[in-house]
Structure prediction request, 582 residues.
Amino acid sequence: MTASHDDTGGARTDGAAGDAPGDGNGPARLHFIEQIIEEDLRTNRWEGRVHTRFPPEPNGYLHIGHAKSICLNFGLARKYGGRCNVRFDDTNPSKEEVEYVESIMDDVRWLGFDWDSRLYYASDYFERLYAFAERLIGKGKAYVCDLSAERMREYRGTLVEPGRDSPNRDRSVDENLDLFRRMRAGEFADGTRTLRAKIDMAAANLNLRDPVLYRILRARHHRTGDAWCIYPTYDWAHGQSDSIEGITHSICTLEFENHRPLYDWCLNELAIYHPRQIEFARLNLTYTVMSKRKLLELVRDGHVTGWDDPRMPTIRGLRRRGFTPESIRRFCERIGVAKFNSTIDVAVLENAVREHLNETAPRVMGVLDPLRVVIENYPEDRVEWLDAINNPEDPSAGGRKVPFARVLHIERDDFREDPPRKFFRLAPGAEVRLRYAYFLKCVSAVKDGEGRVVELRCVYDPRTLGNAPPDGRKVKGTIHWVSAEHGLDAEVRLYEHLFRNADPDDTGPGESYLDGLNPDSLRVLRGCRVEPSLAEARVGDRFQFERQGYFCLDDDSKPGSLVFNRTVPLRDTWAKIEKKGD
Ligand code: ATP
Ligand code: MG
Prediction:
């Protein structure tokens, strides 16, 4: 192992990826988990195996934070020739649903990962987990406790005061076994008894103060039905499930660092195969909430249209917004893996998709706020099908034909009656190039009764298709356009951050994160005009609308009324196009 490790790697917010692994810029540095794995491989700690798992709780849809965990766990397995399981952590039947299970599987696959035949459920292990619990009782290391949840809290102590022993702590092994079996048999009401590990009520780590391993809960489980009325806690289910599956590196987020001594205690007391738990910093993004409770609230209370609302940080939302799996994987790789929590600028995520779509998305012309242009010297009945390039970044993408005619639509914003200095677009008397077409000069603007410009009268120079005019005249601006007769009608949805503050939880006194919702997070434009080639587009197809950004065809589209989501705007495009147009 030669690489050095930088704990702050994940804190980078600039999106620069010069030394990110896998982007072809020389040898990549190893992050701290890779270092651990390489060291374990060197010392043959797991007989050469690398076996990770992704353990979602099916109580919501996956979000971009989960994507980081998925990319990490599956990525390590891939990199080291190992395996990665998917295991549903379905130990809390009151909050879990089949809908979530299915969406999670679909999202993991969409991200480009495959668990082959290794799809598991913690509920598959309920019988074995129960047997492990009896084993612990048999060793005198667990007991049935009659304290209510509230009393248990009182007995627990605080960070500065030790806890007190439960009055039931010294029950005999036989009595404990009998009571535990009767708990399972359904003899006691919900919440009246628990099974607790017998560790140390004075432990500095509160997780070791006789934590609960089983609770009584009469709730129908989406897989085991009514077979059980006691359910294991996360702490009891997780490590033992890892052990059953032969996991080598059990990777979780930093909140579980304080649970690791308990994870180790259980496995040591049971004397079974013992994976290694490693904690990393969870992903936080600016302008984004990532808590499943809050995401559920946004959906349930109608602040967004659903889990797949394009403003949501869910994988579903990002998919619908037009993100590609590659861009999300690239983002996860780029932000790295760190041991300290930090917040990544959401612009890093947006840059990742912009970069990928720049390489892959076909270019088209679409006018978001149309202004009618009549070319007075162009024949009424003439239509020319002009050559347009599909993707200058990808010659293999080829070209297409776009219809040019006497009446066009251009962007209202590309005309100023009274242009500021250095405005290189249209104005009375000014000349521009129409993308893939001719020079166009504005003669006059036609206004309605309220003084609003409703049409431009223009002339074109027929000698300028693909070249400069013989007189060597130059123009500085190139603008996009769509033929009025051939263009298709479209609705375009523009998105901004869902929250106004970079930290949505940083609210005023007495306010909640909901008070920080951005009222302008969705702007709907109707009556947009797009070039006719888009009649062939299918839901989910992504495009660059020249000069406007990247757009994705939404499933609200119907034949004849297209709906596009803007994935991200283009950045700096204006300057670039200005230079290209001559
Ligand atoms: P909760 O447990 O509160 O329902 P969770 O976000 O922990 O929410 P899980 O379904 O338990 O949700 O998470 C599955 C896996 O994804 C866990 O290993 C968890 O550590 C990881 N994960 C969740 N959120 C993030 C995040 N923001 N960054 C990185 N990994 C995350
Ligand atoms: Mg969790």
The chain has three domains: 4-280, 292-360, 363-486. The pocket of adenosine-5'-triphosphate (ligand 1) is lined by residues 55-57, 59, 65-66, 68-69, 89, 252-253, 282-283, 290, 292 (CB under 6 Å).
